[in-house]
Amino acid sequence: MSYQLNKKVSDLEPYEPISGNYRIRLDANESFLEIPEHVRADMLDRIGRLHLNRYPDPLASGVCEKAGRYLGVKPELITVGNGSDELLTLLTQVIMSKGEKLVYTSPDFSMYKCYGYLAEVECIEYRKDESFKIGVDDLIDLIRREGARMVIFSNPCNPTGVGISREEVLRLIEGAPDCLVVVDEAYMEFWNESVLDCVEKYDNLMVLKTCSKSFRMAGIRCGLAISNAKVTNALRAAKSPYNVNSMTQAAAETLFDYPHELDSATQAVIQSRDELYRGVTALAEKHPDKLSLLPTSANFVYIKMPSGEAKRIFEAMKAEGVIVRCMGDYLRITCGTETENAEVVRLLEVYL
Q1: What are the 10-residue block averages of pLDDT along the chain, 352 residues in total?
Q2: How many CA within 13 A on the CB side of residue 349?
Q3: HSE (CB half, 13 Å, CA atoms) of 173?
């Protein structure tokens, strides 16, 4: 008799991002900007002085201090993770118990449901309306009816770029006091509706942040969970003792030492996004029967096409060495450099 995997793992399909070398990569919502050379030099100097024979700081205290100063929150309310994905795993596997109910919105980041499934919690879908907006009253009703212990959503949303206002998020928090509201603000630097300043006001709010988007450091895998002292202490106690390696900590500390660089990079991405949005909007006006797009508050555009067209154009772009993300009848295109944006718009027009 041979060893058998349990059903939840044996039936699981791996998350498979696009791999390979392409001349233009606009598929993963990363920043198109590299960090400046003087910041990179400082970062490498710090990494070069690390004692790698020793374990890293278990709480990543330096990152908490500097990120807290930049974000305007107390360092002791931050838990640093090996990317936001580790923090999401902790939330579903530790903060929640087997059999409890997790509400996730759809469409949204697909891994929310996956991590809940692996934690053996009951995952309940909230379907957004045709404009991909969350109806807060309906969501509150669902949470109450199901007795959900956690609700999670990205704001602005990945993949749609649509967000809900700060006032609506606060109304959700207040309307579901027995449910931990996890707001993934990975893209909030490109908008202005954060609830980060409210983490101490509410005992059922957690905000997730990442270094992978506007902070230009997807490669270091550094995520932040910010909540009140009670939730933060529980999360810190449950995580692995040395979960964030010394090199990531040194890189993140350096990053937050340059707040003006972070701000200017964010503005550059917003400018690029708006440029890409204008280019695609012009195409939509010329070809209203072939594509439409939603207003976006993130660093990408989300384009709807007739059945089969998104896949056809995705493959055609791929053959040209240009990678975007195909999601059913939608293309999600991350903003890039001025040249990259122009090339994507040109190729779209050719294929249309």
Answers
A1: 84 78 95 97 97 97 98 98 95 93 97 94 96 96 98 98 97 98 98 98 98 95 98 96 97 98 98 98 96 96 96 96 96 98 97 91
A2: 13
A3: 22
Alpha carbon distances (Å) from 97 to 110, 122, 148, 157, 340: 21, 10, 12, 26, 46
Compute the residue count for the chain.
352
CB atoms within 10 A of CB 198: 16
Instruction: Record the tokens describing residue 242, joined without a space.
Output: 């040395």
Dihedral, CA atoms, 92, 17, 267, 222, nearest 10 degrees? 40
| CA 128/CA 155 separation, integer angstroms | 13
Residues 107 and 292 sit within 8 Å (Cβ to Cβ)? no
| CA 89 to centroid of chain Cα atoms | 14
- Threshold 0.90, pTM exceeds: yes
40, 153, 175, 216, 251 from 255: Cα distances, Å: 9, 27, 37, 9, 6
Strands (E), 108-211: 122-127, 150-154, 180-184, 205-210
CA distance 315 to 312: 5
Q: Is residue 214 a contact partner of residue 31, using CB atoms and an 8 Å limit?
A: yes
